[in-house]
Design goal:
This protein has one domain. It is built from 14 helices and no strands. It is globular. The C terminus is likely disordered.
């Protein structure tokens, strides 16, 4: 399989019909590492909003079980999408996620923003650091995945285009980004999780390089100073050197998708393992569309 054969395949697809397959090709074959980095940046953007970070800080999930919280978030997205959003597996994951969120009073606009970060974050990262930028069909597929997830979670007003999600994100951040001590506490807890993936001598350097890749509005909201220009340049050159190398590699074989390898579950997991302990074993609520059908 040639390096650009999947891109040619994606360009022949209809995103309105094939957005789930395109999403799997992006996240499991074309850009698995880059997609994961974009999602990680999305987590950090959420912490720039005091209303969101205070809730996360109050639950203490990142302080007590940061790696599990990180893994669970990734796995919920994987479970919803892997066999199709309308599959029983996908809908069960959405019900479980809705049950967890239902414990908290979260405004719809916050749900919309968090969803927008998961659409915009991966595209921004891939366009900047991937071995190639996303094509128009791929960007549209990311947006349609976000729109589908909104429908399954009962989130109102979700855009169906990438430009719509990006405008939502930019407008929301302009209004809501502000420093709060909770922002920094949750961000520090997350950095401790990601730094622990590397040998101890490398962790200070990894932390500095990670900060060097963040934009100044986000850094201000999290309470961090911008890194020196030489550190920023080193971070960008290091990631782009990787992308140049990846561009020279053959395409990932169809039989070898890049699936999540959660550190919290070395011997596997079930859907009921995901989320805080209080959510385990509780009855699943119907999805919004299922509730509507019951009322007819």
């Amino acid at each position: 399989m040639g390096r650009y054969s999947r891109l040619r395949e994606i360009r022949r697809m209809d995103p309105a019909r094939d957005f789930e397959r395109i999403h799997r090709l992006i996240s499991q074959y074309e850009f698995p590492w880059d997609y994961a980095q974009g999602v990680s940046i999305a987590f950090l953007r959420d912490y720039g909003v005091p209303r969101i970070s205070r809730l996360l800080d109050r639950t203490q999930e990142f302080e007590r079980a940061g790696q599990k919280r990180y893994d669970d978030t990734v796995l919920f997205g994987f479970e919803m999408a892997q066999e199709g959003f309308d599959s029983e597996r996908g809908r069960a994951a959405a019900r479980h996620l809705n049950r967890i969120h239902g414990k908290y009073r979260i405004p719809n606009e916050d749900f919309l923003y968090v969803l927008a970060t998961t659409v915009v974050g991966p595209k921004r990262w891939i366009d900047r650091f991937g071995w190639r930028p996303l094509c128009a069909n791929e960007a549209e597929a990311l947006a349609l995945v976000g729109h589908k997830m909104a429908a399954m979670m009962g989130i109102e007003g979700a855009p169906s285009t990438y430009d719509g999600f990006e405008k939502l994100l930019v407008d929301y951040e302009r209004e809501m980004f502000a420093y709060d001590p909770a922002n920094r506490r949750v961000a520090n807890a997350t950095f401790r999780v990601t730094a622990a993936w590397y040998p101890a001598p490398l962790r200070p350097l990894v932390a500095r390089l990670s900060l060097a890749l963040l934009d100044e509005p986000l850094l201000r909201a999290l309470g961090f100073r911008p890194q020196p220009r030489w550190v920023q340049a080193m971070a960008v050159r290091t990631i782009r050197a990787r992308s140049h190398f990846v561009r020279l590699l053959p395409a990932r074989p169809d039989r070898w998708p890049a699936l999540p390898e959660p550190r919290s579950y070395p011997f596997g997991y079930t859907l009921d393992d995901l989320g805080p302990h209080w959510a385990h074993g509780r009855p699943l609520e119907p999805l919004p569309d299922e509730t509507a059908l019951e009322r007819r």
